[in-house]
Structure formats: structure tokens, C-alpha cells
């Protein structure tokens, strides 16, 4: 078998060892450098002066002498340039578009695009797209165009400010190097450069290669195979055929070898039933391979979807030996991140009043049992606060009430001392990190120390730049913190040159393996397709020769086929589960291999395809359950008889009993998210409560046109007040939030118009708004009569010509519930709206005659469609047999809930877990 690519490179370097330290080897990534150094050490028979080994980005920065900036510094530098050029200083608004603009600047620079011409043309394009004959531009359109008119000046100021400080981001260093390449090349400490293992070069890299190769200052070693190079239609060879042949005379290896398929002994394509099954398949393959000998660095698992890493580790065989994970783990994947993330929520939710400060219980509960905070106090302060909140059923925790508990711990008291702005919060987080670091010093575990060090670097950067900038809101700083933590990765423990290698697709560049297992070989994952945010239209990318998704497809095609160069055993595994996003369809590369591999390789190895018969539970979630022991049953019965069932809790119980248990029995709260833009549920609440405020003065009265006219005049003021109450994290004066405010104006106006039209034909007397009702139901559960409390808050009740309309507001689309589906309530999650209406009817049964009750729904987004009635019939009212059938269905539901032979387990809930708020517990 021929030597692997980097072994061949090492052999050549040893043959020309006299160049030694005067030579630089430039590779696509650091991982390839590690393996090249190893290959040199393995082949050297005498002491050898190794060349300098650099990544391509490191080479550009060495050329220019510029210092690479971190992402946070880049963002703040861009903000200062934006502020300098436009006079605008709303950093919250900037953070909604700044990261994307920064990414686009990098792309323009690496492709040497004339920024002046590009931004000028982009402005004219935007202007043309917003122009309509005989129509004035709106203020929003004017602001939009004004921004794009200044974009080239923002770019110029941004880049020149960085260069003045001898700093740059990657793309800027590339452009700066190429603009004066000859001078920079003369100052390099190397006599010769060897470019190794490259494929798709951007324009700056092409210019670099062009200069060094043609001037004789460099050679290039390409890792190509005739399998795809000689096929003029094959994507994997696209860049070599179309762009790089001009360099062939300056390349050392000119004729692509024929390797693919020549050494392959086994080639299998395996359809798995789900993601967990893919990992199970990988584990079984490894077990088979280990029978041939110890797994070493010639075996690799390639994760097309890196989200599979954790379930894969769960399924690795116990005797797999050492393994090395190259991807690193994002800080957002560590539990400590979630504590810091929640601190932004806590700080933003602080309330000041006569009793001192207060925090919503929903914001505090996620941190009260934090194992990190528990390290800072000998007393169980978090548990005591939780017990206090739960006992009092408190929505808010006030300072005076919490004082007796907090006086036991100065650390907890400092945590709950309100932080008036993000600088105060970041300063507190810095102190907390230092306290945690000290608490871990005596532990024999370096990971927490490394982790805290990375978080400290981030908070220090944010503090440093925030001091020179207008204050950012908690929501946007939280978003920025998340972005930086997502991009920052802590390397996994492991020896990079030993054992099984686990890596992403692009990390395999220049590396060869004998055994290859590729997971998630699905279309839209391999290749990834259209991904990434950009302000650059596709047509502009084509015009300025910037990589498009089609070019990225070619990059992935090369990376995939390059894996086959020296592979003896290949296993391509894909998720065959139909009906899931990015699931069911094998990658185009699989289909292509099935069509061509045997013919192109002379049929030496046949591809075997089969379906794995594993029925593995997703994310290994079936490995635990909660038995319905006496204590659990007691809590359930207490809930049913005292707190009571609502329509929402019934629907939760039918959809997912475990979610019901966590939310209603254990009362495990999901933290409220800080919203950068107004979300659908918040928007619905704003419209809902605005209507409540407007209509409240008329409870008990017959609606008149005068009353509706008065509500029209007050609507805008009331909406402003409600937006202020429900959305305190950001501005509603611009962007998507501004549009949401305008939409709310329209919806409230439509609601009032609907009633204005109805009162012309009907007499409407408003009975109640947001009123809570409760009743006791006697149910037969397992042969015993049990009293169960039924309760609920009804949005609106009104009398219309002698009929009692019970109205439930819905945020989304509404279809008419049908009474003939009553018998499906106990096991059909689609009957949730029918449950809602019948529960409300049952609650009002003791107050009004059944025949007069008319339950109905109203979509907050579709007032013009009017009320939606049962069976889509306005005259449809409730009858006794309907409520009798509701009781029967409730008995079926509750008997199952109280059945001690059926523990709470997620095992049978795979299709419903994606709707759960507790997926992190299940996995």
C-alpha cells in the first residue's frame, strides 16, 4: 500500500533536510501540522532540523507582522467606526447586525474585492429594490438606505483604525499582505516555502500561491486523485481542473495518482433508524475493527453533524482504548455557562420598590440549586430560598422577606444585590469566577480551572470594551456573551497522535486513515447546503467571484472523496428516519458512489448497502424512569384535589406525562428567556392584555358605539404601556420590534372594528375578563370516587342575545374543534383546543344553563375572520352528554396517571420530546 500523503511529504522533507530551519511548510490547519511532525519523527534516522510548520492564516500574519484581534475586539472596533461615521450610538441595535457585517467584511477582504465599488453598487441595488413609481419612501426605508450609503465609509474607518494599531482580523491581514506582497516576502526568515494539501483557495490565497510559485520561492504538493480529477464533471476536482493547472509546472507532483478503491477491502453504506442508532452502529463497527488489532490513529470517526459527539461517546465500546477528539467543546455546552447565562436573566428582571429589591421567582429558581453557587457557602442557601418561594407560592422574592436567609451568606447576598447595568454584572461575574477558581484549587481536576480561565478572558474583554462604549442592555450583552462562548472551545483531554480519532469533516484535510466511519452522511448535512448569514446577495457573490453555496458543495465533495484515497475500510452511515428535518435522505455523495464507484475502480470492491436493525432510543433517553411510589402518588393526589387541573395541565398530561410531572407536580420551572426581538408569545400577551385594559371599564355593561369609540382613542396609549410592561429588554423604535408594534396597533383596531360591526346586529353585554373559576368533579378512578378540582382563567365572557359566549384567545392559527372528537381526548394531542372549550363550559355549568353556553375561540392574529365556534357552527351550544363524555375521558387520563405499574419514562415519547421544555433532562 502506498504511503499516506503526509508520510510522503515527510519523506521529501527529510530528503531535503539541508534546508531545515530555513524552510516553512504551510498547511490548511493545525491538525495536519501535528501529524506531519509525527511523520517526520517516525521516518528520520538521524537528528533532523525540522522546518517551521504554519497554518495558512498564521503564515499571512507572519508575513505582515500584524496582531490578530479577538472577536469581541473586532465587534467593538466595528461599532466605534459605525458611530464615528454615522453619529449613531445605539449599540443594542448595532449588535443585531454587526456580527453579520463583520463576517461579510472578512469575506470581501479574503477575496480582494474592491470595497469601494462593491458597497457603492450594493447601495444602488438596495435603492432600486426599494423604489416604487409615484410612492414616497417610508422613514424605515430612508433609514435603511442611509445605512447602506455609509457602509463603505464604515468599512474604511473600521479597517484603517485597526491597521493604525497594527491589528487585523483574518481577512484584513490577507488583503494587507497581498497589497505589498513582494516587500513582505523579502522580509520572511525562510528561503523556501512548501504549500501542502490545499484545495479551495480564496482570492488572497491564490495571489499568494501565484507569487511564491512563479517566483521560485515555493513549491506545492497537492493531494489529488485521478478518480475525480480526470472526470470533468466531478465536483471534487473542480478547483484543481478549473483554476490551479496554471501552477502545475511549479508543482512537485504533477500527475494525480490512482488511489481511490485500489486498497479498499470493505465498503458499506448503512441506513440507521435515528441519530442514536447511528452511534450504536459506529460502536459495533469499532468493536469489529478492534478484533483486527488495537485501534490506533489510522481509524477515524468523522462527524458530519457535530451534535452527535455526546451520544457517540456514550456508545463507544469499553475496550476502545484511547481516543482523541479534535473539535473541542464550546463553552456553551458546559453547565457553568448556563449559570452565567441565567445571571443576565436575573439581573434584567430586578425590581425596585418600597420593600427594597425583588426578583421574579421564575428567574431565580434555575440558579438556586447550582452546584457552583453551593461551593460558595456552607449553608444550603439556594435550597432555603427555594423552599421559601414554594411554601409561600411567591411570584416575587422581596429583599425584606429574603433577608433572614441571605444574612447567613455574604456571597448569596452579593449575588442578589441588584446590578444596575451590564458593567456591574460583568464585574460581579469576574469576582464570582475568581471565587470559584480558588474553590477548585485543591481539587485534582484541571478542567474547571481551564474553563474558568476561558470565562475570565471573555468577561475581561467585555468589561474592557464596554467601558469605552455606551451601555449595552442585559439582553444584548447576553446575546454577545453567548456568541463569544459559542465560538470559544475548550479542547478535550486526549493525546492527539494516539488512538481513535474523532473529528469534523473539514478537520480531516491532508489526513489519511485506513478505517473511516462517517456519521450523518445525509443530504443537507453532507454537504451542508445553504448556510450562514450574509448581507451579500447571491448575485453579487457570483459577480465578484466570492464563494457561494455551490463552491462550498465542491469543497465538501473534495474533503469527502479525499478521505477515500488510502482507506481500506469505509463505512458511511446516515439517518434514514423519514419526516425529520435533515433526515431520511442519503447524501448525494452516497448516491454518486453507488452509481460510479465499482465501474471507476474496476470492481475490486463492491459496495454493500443495508439497513441497521437497531431500534435505539434517541439520545439514550430510555435509561431511566420515575416510579410512582407512595410519595409521588401523594403529591399527584394533592395536586388534583388542591391546586387542581386546568385545560393546559390536562393537555400537557396527554402530550407528555413526564413534562406534566416536572411542571405541575415537582414544579420545576423553565427559565424565561430574554428576548432580543419580541417573540410570538410575548406579542400575543401584549395584544391580549391591551384588550383587557381597554374593555375592563365596561364589565357588566352593554357595549355601545360610544364605548368602542372611546377605546379607539385610548388604544395607542394602552399598547405603549403594555409594550413597556411586557418587553423591557430592548427598543421598539426600529427594526423587527417596530414592525411588531405597528402590527399590534392594527390587530387591536381590528378587534374593536369586529365588535363595532357586531353591535349593529346583536346586543352584547360584557360579563367578565380574565376571571378565574373553579369547581369540584367527582370522578371514578380505579373503582373509587375521587373529588378532583377543575379550575381555569377564562379570557372573556359575554352575553349575546341571551347566549353566553365563552371566548378563549389564541396566539396562532385556529381551526374549529369538533365535538365528535370528544372520545379521542385521552390519547390525541390534536384535541387540545376542544379540551380548553369543554373545560370552560364545565366551569360555567354551575352558573348558567348548559344550553345557553357557546364556547368559541378567537385568533389574536385574525380578527377579521371573527370567532371560531364548535363544529364551525355559530349556534352550537353544549349539552349534558358532552360534559359526561368529558368526565369519562378525564377518568381514562387520570387512571393512567395514577397507575403504579406505569412509571414516568420518556421511552415511548420520541415524537413528542421536541416540544418539551425539559429535553436537557431527558438527554
The CATH topology of the largest domain is what?
Lambda Exonuclease, Chain A
Task: Give the number of domains.
Answer: 5
Average pLDDT level: 87
The share of residues in helices is: 40-55%
**Distance N to C terminus:** 43 Å
**Could you say which overall geometry the principal axes of the C-alpha atoms support?**
globular
Rg calc: 33 Å
Indicate the low-confidence ranges by residue numbers. Answer: 578-583, 615-623, 671-677
What's the CATH class label of the largest domain? Alpha Beta
What would you note in describing this structure?
This protein has 923 residues and is an alpha/beta fold. It has five domains: 5-66 and 176-250, 3-Layer(aba) Sandwich (Rossmann fold), CATH 3.40.50; 70-157, no CATH class; 266-328 and 495-616, Rossmann fold; 332-490; 680-897, Lambda Exonuclease, Chain A. The protein is built from 35 helices and 23 strands. The strands form six sheets. Strands 9-15-8-16-17-7-18 form a seven-stranded parallel beta sheet, with helices on both faces. It is globular. The two termini are 43 Å apart.
